[in-house]
Amino acid sequence: MELIFRPRRLRRQATLRKMVQETHLRREDFIYPMFVAPGQGVRQAVDAMPGVCRLSVDQLLKEAREVADLGLPAVLLFGLPQKKDETGSEAAAPKGAVQQAVRRLKKEVPALLVITDVCLCGYTSHGHCGLIQGGEVDNDATLEALAQVALSHAEAGADMVAPSDMMDGRVGAIREALDERGFEMLPIMSYAVKYASSFYGPFREAAECAPAFGDRRAYQMDPANAREALKEAALDVEEGADILMVKPALPYLDIVAQLAGEFDLPIAAYQVSGEYAMIKAAAQKGWLNEEAVMLESLTSIKRAGADLILTYFAKQAAALLK
Hints:
Number of helices: 11
Radius of gyration: 20 Å
Shape: globular
Largest sheet: 10 strands, mixed
Order of helices and strands: HEEEHEHEEEHEHEHHEHEHHEH
Helix content: 25-40%
Mean pLDDT: 94
CATH superfamily: Aldolase class I
CATH topology: TIM Barrel
CATH class: Alpha Beta
Structural class: alpha/beta
CATH architecture: Alpha-Beta Barrel
Number of domains: 1
Distance between the termini: 47 Å
């Protein structure tokens, strides 16, 4: 008698499917991005990102308590300034929105791990991620500014900093500055592989950080390149990164998988605003089942090799996974 292997034997019952499931989502996998704005009582909806708001510190604290109650372990803070200038000086201000939010969060919601974005784009009048010299971003001149931003976050009590600017050498510059000031135990989650993606549009509305001229292709990675991703990640490892991130996630699952296979550090992937907005918009049209597609997309990121997932769906997913 010819033996026939039937994989469907393990798929016929829901309980059995769950028992042999290879990839599992956990609430502990997620990091929830939040936008902190100056002022009091501010809750501004972001039109392109349903369910996401710019929040003043008092309002952010309310949402952070909800995040913690859902069992989510961490938030990532992006800041909006009172006023922008050519050098993004408010990014390092001790009384900036992010710095104030960090201090309050660590005091009032101590269970949450607070990660802070380190970049200048939301603070500069020109919207670029670095200082401008001769009409171009000056990489090396920007490093000191980024180090000062990271220090201001560390001094406020941040648990981790996450440089997202894609300047060469910024992980090393930040690591050196932190170590010199006694923050040698503060980890760095590097946006090691950040592509010049078209999926960032809704985020730029939320953070009010669209470039006033040109684009960011001179410092963010070419979407066509894969070998370069390994080089970028290796450089950040050498400079002292503790976690490597790929951004965006879904269009670059191959890159997530490559980094997971190549490096021993934890791998993070950012399901960015455009990925989130597409699912939300299609669901609002009735074209997709939002919960099912959300969980499928998050599972694919985890299956590709991500240990951590930054997603605006974090609260929604956590509620389903409880």
